[in-house]
């Protein structure tokens, strides 16, 4: 099993570690988590993860090094680990928004293998949508990163210039879809359901809609057509939402998130 060091134990870093453990990709003792204050990581220590507050030491025996810090923290981290990575033996995987493979290699060395990955927080339950890309990583390393993230969800390989778009659609997208479920549950309360019942109904309906598309391999509009009838209640509700800008607002939100993701590292 590969030894993995995850630098940055925030939401994505911890979600990745827990997801890999849940899917038996590796054992807890094969994963090292780094954080500036490891005293706040008692639950992770109890699970068996190795902990470190020294990034340079933490990567020495790692096969895969995952960079999962905030964009504004990256330069400091790269300075700490610069010169300690063995290009022929170690692979760097970055899940940092707005940071290209070239940005990382400029500081670590042009011979370092770097793959970008953009998962979302559903990785913790093995349901992430992860996009991966690289500008010059080997096929072997791309296959290894694909295998790593396939243990915790679905993987799509894309061109690197689309990674900020993937951030908006998949990583930020979790929040967008959760907000739409929340809105549906609030609508349920408006029409008479108790809050907990309305939320359960909205969540299962959303899950059913997603599974319907995945399993039937169909287009959303074809499934919508099956539940809309002339002068019916479904088309009335859909049209009201569209008149109030539902699709337009959703699309504009994704576009704005993509623009912001592209400028995070530069800021």
TrEMBL record:
Enzyme category, top tier: oxidoreductase
Keywords tagged on the record: Amino-acid biosynthesis, Cytoplasm, NADP, Oxidoreductase, Proline biosynthesis
InterPro entries reported for this sequence: 6-PGluconate_DH-like_C_sf, NAD(P)-bd_dom_sf, P5C_Rdtase_cat_N, P5CR_dimer, Pyrroline-COOH_reductase
Keyword flag Cytoplasm: yes
Pathway(s) where this gene product acts: Amino-acid biosynthesis; L-proline biosynthesis; L-proline from L-glutamate 5-semialdehyde: step 1/1
This enzyme's EC code(s): 1.5.1.2
Domain of life assignment: Bacteria
Recorded catalytic activity of this chain's protein: L-proline + NADP(+) = (S)-1-pyrroline-5-carboxylate + NADPH + 2 H(+); L-proline + NAD(+) = (S)-1-pyrroline-5-carboxylate + NADH + 2 H(+)
Domain Pyrroline-5-carboxylate reductase catalytic N-terminal: 3-97
Subcellular location: Cytoplasm
Coiled coil spans: none
Domain Pyrroline-5-carboxylate reductase dimerisation as annotated: residue spans: 160-262
KW Oxidoreductase (keyword) present: yes
Family label: Belongs to the pyrroline-5-carboxylate reductase family.
Job of this protein: Catalyzes the reduction of 1-pyrroline-5-carboxylate (PCA) to L-proline.
HAMAP family per record: P5C_reductase
Protein name as it appears in the record: Pyrroline-5-carboxylate reductase
